[in-house]
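Quick check before the chapter quiz. The format below is the same one you will see on the exam, so make sure you can read both the input and the output lines.
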Amino acid sequence: MRLAEEKDKGRILEYLRRGLQDCVYLYIDIMNYGIATENMKVWFAEETGRISLVVMKYYDSFQIYSESDNYDVSAVKELLEQYSVAMVSGKKTMIEQLAAVCPRYESTYGVVFVMDKYRKMNPPVEIIRATERDAREIAELICSDDEIGGHYTVDNLTAQLEERIHTKTGRSYIIRQDGRIVAHSATYAEAEGIAVVGGTIIDNEYRDQNYYLLLSNYMLQELDEESKVAYTFSLSDKMIQYHSRMHTKCGEYGKLVRK
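Here is the expected output.
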């Protein structure tokens, strides 16, 4: 493994593009931010002059990708021992192998969907495009749910949301009731022609209000109007069943969360 330089960016993106559904975050973040920033680093491995593995550190997480299921697990393990990030994610077969040699991390697995269908709706409540000022309150709501926010801290997630909104590489939509945010959904990453939807959460008191469907359809309509294909990642049985009825499965993924 070696640390990537800016001159490697084109080759790395070409490699990732071939398996986009299995590395969409990696692809978008490198496309948007380049190879190295204050909060991001990229490493890659080669075999006979061809890229065989890419690892990206973004804030306190790793994204990993290899076309082959026979990848160098020990190289990723060494990086984990050096950086001890809170989360690692990648396609299911890769995470299964890494989980076997990383006992300090707990594994979970889910499904990747292309969000290729939506219903045009006139929302009965106001859906607001969030600003950077809303980022901390959004982060607090997300971090109140272990399933989608357990690997973040409020400060860390606030910084990420602020950065995405400021750089226009992500957007958040919110619903407020009684002066507080009670529903949120976002694109966690965006580039030309592509977006990843995540961070969808409804306050427990409002889960009977159909806010999930309203937010999802509102955002998908906007993305479709911008000719952007939306992907999402689902872990829970409930959300996998929901997306299976609505959208097209395109992959399986896993994540490791530090115990």
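If your answer matched, good. The mean pLDDT is 93.
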